[in-house]
């Protein structure tokens, strides 16, 4: 585990993104500035996990103020909910929602930034224009999903033949980034780029209008809070699934699952019922805040949950890239996504569009029932822990889709129950329930020992260690004045501190 220490630093899923962020920090920019540079480079070099066609969220600490922003988009005005309910698509034009990432860049620059977008986007523009060599994560993503995506002609032209080590160029994306850098973030929503984006998407069957882009606004939000006495936990509110993380960590203590040792695999059985209950609550009650009938602040504890029968279940694969940046004063957790790897597959202007619309429910009468101009339930979330005993702040996030609350909980319990260091907590073998509303099937990484369920739970031992999430995390030690950065060795992440 490559853990690094310093007053400033970056932990992210690609070395070129880390380098871009560090350069901003070294040139006097703050963590918010650096986060845009990292985000933009990741959009180029890891186009399967996030980009200009997707959404983003941030959870940050700045001058002891907690900042949370929801950069997710709504379904377009021409979205056909009845057709969606009938066809139940996972990719394609019916799943495209308005991308919110670029607007979030604008929010960050205008509210907290110190640098111009021209400077922050230069590394990403250069990589898109001149090319970069595909890492194993990109090569593996193309190989795995090529069969699903080669029907999308623009995607196929850009990425269909990419293998690990291929030189990849995306001049269309470079042109879009160049226009944003020279004309401002709103070029993406109001300018020529917006017009061309709508035209390209309409030709591929997306029911989008220019007004849909012009009307998009992200949201400054108040994070959900779980007070555990010596620790205070923060997560993103709906339409994020962040509430599920807090409910799981609450269950860890309320149900005394924390009494089991790390190698006592009875704890896997103990998680079956609460996992089922928490995800059922999510699927019945969480969605666009404007459509919800509950106040999520009253449901952050496990004992507050009331559930009904679960509905249909769909799971997303690893969908996301999360990174963390610290400049010694500002600590920023940043997550961006296309939902499924390469999103909807629909591609125009070199931009792969997200399929976040496939996160809508297939049932009527729920907060997450599909309709035009509505935000779907979002799997993106970030966990921040203010630990008073250790006088430390932890920022934890991951790629993990629907499994994210479980992954956050594994990292939390490794640190605060099993007393692992940050690096040990990320490296330790994990287990994840994969049939969320049933709690009867689990994947277990090698190294946890032999598991025999007393509940008849089906278990699969996995070797690759990529199905249980890819985590990046940081711990700021407020007593000693440094930050510890930890990347997940299951993927391609690195951390560098200065």
Structure description:
The chain is an alpha+beta fold. The protein folds into 2 domains: 4-220 and 318-359, no CATH class; 224-317 and 380-480, Glutamine Phosphoribosylpyrophosphate, subunit 1, domain 1 (4-Layer Sandwich). It contains 17 helices and 21 strands. It has a 7-stranded antiparallel β-sheet. Strands 7-4-3-11-10-2-21 form a 7-stranded antiparallel β-sheet, with helices on one face. A 3-stranded mixed β-sheet has the order 16-17-18. The protein is globular. The two termini are 18 Å apart.
Spatial sequence of strands, sheet with the most strands: 1-20-19-15-14-9-8
Number of domains: 2
Rounded to an integer, what's the Rg over CA atoms? 21 Å
Outline: globular
- Beta fraction of the residues? 15-25%
Number of helices: 17
Q: Taking all residues together, what is the mean pLDDT?
A: 95
Distance between the termini: 18 Å
Query: What are the low-pLDDT stretches, counting only 5+ consecutive residues below 50?
Result: none
**Secondary-structure class:** alpha+beta
Main sheet overview: 7 strands, antiparallel
| Strand runs, count | 21
Instruction: Provide the helix percentage.
Output: 25-40%
Architecture blueprint of SSEs:
Blueprint: E1 4-6, E2 9-12, H1 15-26, H2 31-45, E3 55-62, E4 65-71, H3 81-87, H4 101-112, H5 117-120, H6 122-130, E5 132-133, H7 136-149, H8 153-159, E6 167-168, H9 171-183, H10 187-190, H11 192-202, H12 210-214, E7 219-220, E8 224-227, E9 231-235, H13 242-254, H14 266-270, H15 272-285, E10 320-326, E11 330-337, E12 347-348, E13 351-352, E14 383-387, E15 392-399, H16 404-416, H17 422-427, E16 431-433, E17 441-445, E18 458-462, E19 470-477, E20 482-487, E21 494-497
Parallel strand pairs: 17-18
Antiparallel strand pairs: 1-20, 2-10, 2-21, 3-4, 3-11, 4-7, 5-6, 8-9, 9-14, 10-11, 12-13, 14-15, 15-19, 16-17, 19-20
Helix pairs in contact: 1-2, 2-6, 6-9, 13-15, 13-16
């Amino acid at each position: 585990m490559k853990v690094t220490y310093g007053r400033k630093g970056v932990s992210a899923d690609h070395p070129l993104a880390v380098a871009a962020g560090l350069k901003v920090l070294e040139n006097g920019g703050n963590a918010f500035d650096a986060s845009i540079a990292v985000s933009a480079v990741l959009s180029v070099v890891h186009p399967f996990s996030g980009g200009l066609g997707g959404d983003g969220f941030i959870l940050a600490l700045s001058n002891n103020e907690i900042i949370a922003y929801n950069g997710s988009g709504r379904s377009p005005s021409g979205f056909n909910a009845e057709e969606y309910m009938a066809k139940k698509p996972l990719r394609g034009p019916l799943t495209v929602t308005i991308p919110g990432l670029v607007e979030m860049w604008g929010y960050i620059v205008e509210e907290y930034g110190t640098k111009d977008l021209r400077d922050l986007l230069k590394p990403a523009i250069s990589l898109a224009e001149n090319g970069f060599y595909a890492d194993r994560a990109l090569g593996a993503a193309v190989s795995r999903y090529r069969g699903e995506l080669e029907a999308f002609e623009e995607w196929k032209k850009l990425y269909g033949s990419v293998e690990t080590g291929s030189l990849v160029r995306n001049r269309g994306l470079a042109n879009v980034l160049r226009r944003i850098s020279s004309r401002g973030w709103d070029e993406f929503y109001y300018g020529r780029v917006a017009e061309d984006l709508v035209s390209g998407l309409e030709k591929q069957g997306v029911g989008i209008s220019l007004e849909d882009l012009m009307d998009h606004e992200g949201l400054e939000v108040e994070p959900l809070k779980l007070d555990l006495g010596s620790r205070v936990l923060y997560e993103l509110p709906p339409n994020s699934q962040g509430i599920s993380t807090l409910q799981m960590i609450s269950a860890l203590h309320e149900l005394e699952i924390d009494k089991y040792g790390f190698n006592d695999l009875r704890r896997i059985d103990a998680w079956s019922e609460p996992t089922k209950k928490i995800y059922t609550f999510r699927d019945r009650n969480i969605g666009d805040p404007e459509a919800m009938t509950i106040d999520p602040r009253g449901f952050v504890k496990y004992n507050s949950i009331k559930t009904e029968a679960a509905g249909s279940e769909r799971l997303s694969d690893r969908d996301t890239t999360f990174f963390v940046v610290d400049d010694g004063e500002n600590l920023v957790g940043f997550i961006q996504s296309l939902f499924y790897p390469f999103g909807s597959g629909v591609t125009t202007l070199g931009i792969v569009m997200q399929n976040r619309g496939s996160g809508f429910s297939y049932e009527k009468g729920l907060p997450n029932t599909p309709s035009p101009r509505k935000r779907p339930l979002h799997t993106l979330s970030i966990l921040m822990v203010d630990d008073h005993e250790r006088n430390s702040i932890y920022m934890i996030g991951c790629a993990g889709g629907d499994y994210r609350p479980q992954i956050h909980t594994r990292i939390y319990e490794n640190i605060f129950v099993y007393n692992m260091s940050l690096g040990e907590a990320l490296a330790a073998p994990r287990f994840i329930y994969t049939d969320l509303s049933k709690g009867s099937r689990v994947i277990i990484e090698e190294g946890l020992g032999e598991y025999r369920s007393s509940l008849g739970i089906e278990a699969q031992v996995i070797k690759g260690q990529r199905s249980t999430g890819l985590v990046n995390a940081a711990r700021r030690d407020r007593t000693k004045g440094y930050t510890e950065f930890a990347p997940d060795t299951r993927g391609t992440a690195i951390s560098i501190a200065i």
